[in-house]
């Protein structure tokens, strides 16, 4: 069903909400400027069920109606493999390195997620697609760089109906993790509802790359991280 983008005269924007810290703060930013619709895509990652729980909790926090929520799955990324997030035989990295692409990189993942978002945006007439990509803290992830999003927006321009005007925006791209935490606090984002751990669904491991970056960010921001850790 098509939905007018004149809701509240703010324009309609889709937010890719994984349930993690970055996507939650991105949701908070988008919510200040637009009427938001939320997209969650599971790809058989290790913590898919826990991330979905966070997604639902954040959606409830922002009172987004079901008509503006899309949750779907693309299990083929786990069949393709090549990432510690989707292949249980590949161990999750416990060290942060800037020398090579980490094993947590899911090959070309963001392109798959954004393609779904663009398709949905054409139907519901959304004008923006928000994604919480972070260039500084996503070491060598090819699909977290500014040039990737510049190229993707060119693709959207030539690959959608001439009557559409959809743009992918990345408000966190040049922020570091502590700045993201501070921005979340400023916007009263529900950071306690988010999940960042790459490995566990019950309690955060505190040791994987994502947990390490998160813990340091909260420490640097002088804020207590209220999610449970092992």
TrEMBL record:
This is 7-cyano-7-deazaguanine synthase. It is an enzyme of class 6 (ligase). Zn(2+) binds at residues 197, 205, 208, 211. Its EC number is 6.3.4.20. ATP binds at residues 17-27. Binds 1 zinc ion per subunit. Keywords: ATP-binding, Ligase, Metal-binding, Nucleotide-binding, Queuosine biosynthesis, Zinc. Belongs to the QueC family. Its cofactor is Zn(2+).
């Amino acid at each position: 069903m098509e939905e007018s983008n004149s809701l509240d005269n703010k324009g309609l924007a889709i937010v890719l909400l994984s349930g993690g810290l970055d996507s939650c703060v991105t949701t908070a930013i988008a919510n200040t400027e637009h009427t938001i619709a939320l997209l969650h895509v599971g790809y058989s990652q290790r913590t898919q069920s826990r991330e979905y729980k966070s997604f639902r909790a954040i959606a409830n926090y922002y009172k987004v109606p079901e008509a503006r929520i899309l949750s779907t799955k693309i299990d083929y990324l786990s069949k393709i493999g090549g990432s510690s997030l989707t292949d249980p035989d590949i161990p999750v990295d416990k060290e942060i390195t800037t020398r090579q692409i980490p094993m947590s990189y899911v090959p070309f993942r963001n392109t798959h997620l954004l393609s779904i978002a663009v398709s949905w945006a054409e139907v519901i007439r959304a004008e923006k697609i928000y994604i919480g990509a972070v260039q500084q803290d996503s070491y060598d992830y090819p699909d977290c760089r500014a040039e990737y999003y510049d190229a993707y927006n060119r693709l959207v321009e030539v690959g959608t109906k001439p009557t559409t005007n959809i743009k992918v925006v990345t408000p966190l791209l040049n922020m570091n993790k502590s700045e993201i935490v501070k921005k979340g606090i400023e916007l009263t984002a529900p950071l306690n509802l988010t999940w960042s751990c790459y490995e566990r669904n019950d309690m955060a491991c505190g040791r994987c790359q994502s947990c390490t970056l998160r813990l340091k960010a909260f420490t640097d921001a002088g804020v207590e991280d209220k999610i449970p850790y092992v």
